[in-house]
Amino acid sequence: MSNALRLARGIFGRVALLDMDRPLVRHAHPHCHVLLKVEGADTQFSVGERIVPLTDDSAVLINAWEPHAYAHHDGQPATIILALYIEPSWLGAFRPNWKASGAPDFFAVPVGSATLRIRGLTRVLAEAMVHDPGNADEHERLLADLMIAVIERFAAWRDEPASLRLAASLVVDHRIRKAVAMMRDDPRAVNDMEGLARAVGLSRAHFFRLFEATLNVSPRVYLNVLRLERAVQAVAEGTESFAKVSESLGFSAPAHFSRFFHDHAGSSPTAFRTVAGLRRSDYETLR
């Protein structure tokens, strides 16, 4: 069963070392998202309308809010994947126009050929997370080196000072703004998309067309992103029971929440919480 082996969190976002042997549903993230193979079988992801390979020699590059899925096949061996979910504001501290990593066109293509440096930095970060799980400063330093190498390799950030599409996306129809605000205020209360459309004064069909044209994802995917990010925070911080987290996000039963979390995050909530709180002393005990 797929699970998280290690998790690093900070102002940079999060990095998950995932042991993957089952598919993930189509989903999205509000981050600059990069997937790198550490070891195991070559595999593949669905990004937008394309199936792209994840191998020793390739990196999968996913823009913020871009729908994607892990396209694992039955009987395919497991793959250990370093999954980077990086905050554009953190990248902007390196170069101001790297804040555009939150734009839908930051990576022009969803897959690229990884350099020997990127492959080496991937391995070094993965090993640091395994062998020194509590060393947050070292994880962030290694992640910075890796992301600089990735962006310089795969993003045409020198060509344009900022994304026009990102700037255009700041102008959003007032009805879509209202729908987004309702989702963000209380994801638990939004289950019926037809009711949400009526609440903002649109027919269901027009609401779906306008929402996706504006935000590049469907209303349901957007709602699931909000739920997942809140779930990740609640599970990683370890302050509430899974039943309480499930209830706060609008799931009818904890089992439904656990399945949702596994299908979107690639790990059970239990494994995710365990590795999120793992310290150096815990690792020594486990050995």
From TrEMBL:
One of its GO terms (molecular function) is DNA-binding transcription factor activity. Residues 177-275 form the HTH araC/xylS-type domain. InterPro entries: AraC-bd, AraC_XylS_family_regulators, Homeodomain-like_sf, HTH-like, HTH_AraC. Keywords: DNA-binding, Transcription, Transcription regulation. SMART domains: HTH_ARAC. The keyword DNA-binding applies. Transmembrane segments: none annotated. PANTHER family: HTH-TYPE TRANSCRIPTIONAL ACTIVATOR RHAS-RELATED, TRANSCRIPTIONAL REGULATORY PROTEIN. This is Helix-turn-helix domain-containing protein.
